[in-house]
Amino acid sequence: MCPGKLVNFCTVSVAGFCTAVYLAPLHATRTDRGGLPSEPDRDQAGGVRPVGHEWMAPSLLYTISILGAVALYMLLRPRNVSWKIIGTLLGFAAFGWFLAEMPAVLAPDEEGRPGFFYLVFSLISIGCAVRMITHSKPVYSALYFVLIVLSSAAMFLLLAAEFMAFALVIIYAGAILITYMFVLMLAQQSPTADDPTGQPEYDRMAREPAAAAIVGFILLAMLGNMATDGVESVGEPRVTADRAALEAVMDLNLMPLDLEEIVAERYPDAVIDWDDNREAVVIMDDRPMVRLIPEGATSPEFFELSLDDAPGNVQRVGLALVAVFPVSLELAGIILLLAMFGAVVLARRQIELGEDELRGMAGLRKIADYDSSEEDAGEGGGDRA
Amino acid sequence: MTIETTHMMMLANTAAGPGWAGFILWFPLISLALCGLWSILRIKSKLPAWTTVGCLALAFLTTVALYVSYSEPVVIHLFDWFNLHWGSGAKAGSFVANFSLYVDSLTLLWMLFVTGLGTLIALYASEYMEPDVGKGYTRFFAGVSVFLFAMSCLVMGDNLVLLYLGWEGVGFASYWLIGYYYTKPSAVAAAKKAFIMNRIGDLGLALAIWFIWLNFGTVEFADLFAVIASGAYHTEAGGWSISAIPFLLMLGAFGKSAQIPLYVWLPDAMEGPTPVSALIHAATMVTAGVYLLCRMFPVMQLHELALPTVAWIGTSTAILSATIALAQYDIKRIMAYSTVSQLGFMFAGVGVMTTAGAAYHVFTHAFFKAVLFLTCGAIMHGFAGQLDLRKLSGIMRLRGWKVVSVTMLIGCLCLAGFPLTSGYFSKDMILAQAFTSGHSAVGWLLLFTAGLTAYYTFRVWFRVCIGPVHFEPGDEDHGDDHGHDDHGHGDHGHGDGKFHPHAPKWAVNFVLIAITVGAILAAIPYFMPSGEEGVKGGWVASMTLDSSARDGMYGVYAIEEKGKLFGADPYNAMYFVSAAFGLVGILIAWWLHLANRKAADALRAKLLANPLTRWLPTAMENKWYVDEIYHVFVRAPLWVIGHAFALIDRLFVDGLLVNGTGYLPRAVGRMFQPLQNGVLQSYAVLMAGGFALVVVLIVLVMPWLQPILADWMAGTGGAG
Amino acid sequence: MMTADSLHLTMATLEPFSSLELGHFILTSAILFAIGIIGFLTRRNMIVMFLCTELMFQAAAIAMIAFGRFHMDLSGQVFVIFILTVAAAESALALALVVLLFRRKETLNAEAWTELRE
Lengths: 385, 720, 118
What we know:
The complex is a heterotrimer of chains A (385), B (720) and C (118). The relative contact order of chain A is 0.07. Chain A is mainly α and 385 residues long. Chain A contains 16 helices and 4 strands. Chain B has 720 residues and is mainly alpha-helical. Chain B contains 27 helices and 5 strands. In chain B, helix 14 (306-326) packs parallel to helix 19, helix 15 packs parallel to helix 18 and helix 15 packs antiparallel against helix 19. Chain B is globular, with a radius of gyration of 33 Å. Chain C has a single domain, classed as Helix Hairpins, CATH 1.10.287. In chain C, helix 2 packs antiparallel against helix 3 (46-71). Residues 1-6 of chain C have low confidence and may be disordered. At the A-C interface, helix 1, helix 3, helix 5, helix 6 and helix 7 of A face helix 2, helix 3 and helix 4 of C.
């Protein structure tokens, strides 16, 4: 692999990711909505959203899947360059057709439009995935996987999962993929006479691409079918966005220092009135309120809080981990620890110890000593001869 | 043909006999058990022989005691065997075949010579089988014991099933003893031949028993004869099967007694040890057929053509085998054909209705043929298996062979029907009866056969016993095996100077003399009173009169119908006519084989030279090509059919059904074998494909299937 | 301008998330999963095969995050953390195994190992 190419690759990737990270929240954030949502807005957001879109017919989905399968097959086992080009074009065509048939993609003002960034990152991730499984050099495959990770991290951002996006980049791109790279280097075969490129046959030739493509795209067609059918039947979310925003403010009960900070900023002279349940934030009339004892007063009063006072994503995920899933967190730690042990035990190089070394480690006399003593006794001398 | 009812009444009222008579059967069984014990103990002495001889002698003594105490036919019940009853009223049926003995005078007559000769021949064998001591000696005497037990069952059984047990038992013992030298391929082949030929006859007997039970409802002799005498059997139900019974019985008898068409096994049976030939294949077992016909004589009269058929088959067999015997060189084989011929005489006797004559001929023949076989055996034993009469001459002049030669002479005289010998009287009864009953063609043919018999008998004796001394040893030069010193033949300097024939010792000589005396004395019963006016045949006739064979006594009941021979009573005329035929035969033999031996060869050469007569000696020497004819017409088609079936079995049953069934799962397995290639990813492909199929089932098939299933469930639920 | 304020994203600032948008993300996830399966089945290099399993993990993670977003529930995100954990553990162990196998046969070809056949 040429170092220059690698540097270019990495630069472009990182630059793209940073752009995405910068732009995605802007896109995802409802900038026109400051403060509390108005009544009609709430209704619109919280009510049963009428599904006014016709999802594509299953037959169409299957057709596109077949097209995609053919494209992938051509890319997996290319006869020549034109196959590659045709396969790529077919793949794009399939994906494009797929998107075109998705409702509301081409209609700019249609509600529920996935948005430009979704298209970009989805295209990047799918394209990179195809390239990953078709590239004959494992290192490139791994790098394409880095791109997939980055673009899916961007999609996480679109989905308002900032912590997960960065965690993904850190853990996957930063840790796991680096391990892959190291192993690739460890397990690299040196170029041989009949294989001067150092690219073994098993990397260049996909095995049974047709069967795999058929199986994969049958699965895809069915999953797509289920997804479209299922999404139609999902209906409304379990918790509306407004209610979730309200409940997010309640999380301040679990974060007293943050709450005190907020209160100190808004109501500098008031003291938080924790009740027996160590709760001060309550929801009254769909508004978040905090119970405070104003200066000089003896009885608590309720003061309003903003929805923006709610803890951010990172804080809430941390809260969920330690407050809601503490045992799972511990288990995850144990799993990681054991995996580390396992990796150490498995990958350590086996050293063949001789009989004498083993005896020495076990604290026994070496065989050589026995031999010399037995020769004196004259026992078993014939066996050695 | 009327059936005398007085005898039948007598049979119906059979009294219970003495239980100790069962020891006639048990002694051979004890001998068998002891032989088995000696075999387990690896006894390497003559103990088995003495055991058998002792047991058989005891059986003989028991028989004599039974004869002495005999007054009327009795049934001796030993134990229940088959005793089945079912139904009631009109539908009642039963099948009773107990292990019981039926003792009448015919039984006693047979048992006397069976056990007597059996004892003597076992004694003879104790010396004859000496070379096999420690090897097959015990096996041989065990076989003899089995034979005696089976033969006693056959003769003494009170029902046809017990008779059949004995019938099969003697067949088995015969197979056992013919195949005694089981390392000799020819002996094995002969044993198989005898066994298979007997199976054909046994099938006839088995079918006859089945038909008898179907038609008469019983297989016990006493009841059976009573039913036949009363005529109280339904003929309309199974007319043809009643008519078939005598012919099926006949088939059984022909198989066991070596008659046309089932005679070819007997000459080959001479592969067995000579005592076996003498006992089983000359004196006793082969007469079982004659016994069967005598015993079942009332049944034989169920069809009017049955007895003439027996007469003609017997006559044909007699003359055919006599002509074969004319041209044979193997003396034992000559005796075998002679046996077949004499059995033909006996059957002819039964056929022309002189059961007394047939029984008397059985009696005398048992003695003189035993003598002849035993002398042949002695010669064979002494001359290392040499049986070719061209290679033996004048052995009478050798020391120690006088007894053999003289006893052989007496046996030959009896066989040839020399006047005043036992064979002379017994044969005359049959010949005379043939003319008396109007079968004069049978009579003349049998007379001619008697002449042939005289000729070939003395051909053997003149060639072997007298004339210039000359001999060659046979191919079984086993003289060295058991030493020369104990035989005292130091001065036998004849022959090639190296081979020394060893003369028989005391046991053989004693037995020869004893049986020869018996053969001579067998003429005496002819002059004893028969117990009934106008019945010739003396003691033997009296023995047959007091049995179910009584009906086969033409002379008793139809004296006024007697034919004439040369204007005289055939019984009287036959003394001279048969003597003349016999003497002529002996004279020709004397001329060709003693006085002028070259004339015999010249005659043969002359016959062979003439194209018109060449076939005669050739065919006779080749036994009329009967074996070859059987081979072409029976064995070859069977061989072809058998191989066709074997091919079908191999290709269709084995190939298609058995291997095909086994091949199918293997083929299916091989079809799927490539799936199990051990490559992780192919398993993964299958797993993912299976998962995809399940998803397809859920997404596509179930929505379509579910309403149908729901409808169906609702339908069944509504119906329920 | 990337400031702490602009990154302080709360629930209140979120746009509505329709089931239609959810469907798009789910379909993306499905496509990635299918490609991951195909890669796992076709690539013979053991390391790339494991990369493909990671791709499938990614697809699953996207679907979970999308559903969590739709339902306004943090469990989806928490679950992805566990997916990350398992992926990390799996890659550590699997790569150790790959190294071990490579030492045995000096090849990364998964088809070189056919002992399952026996």
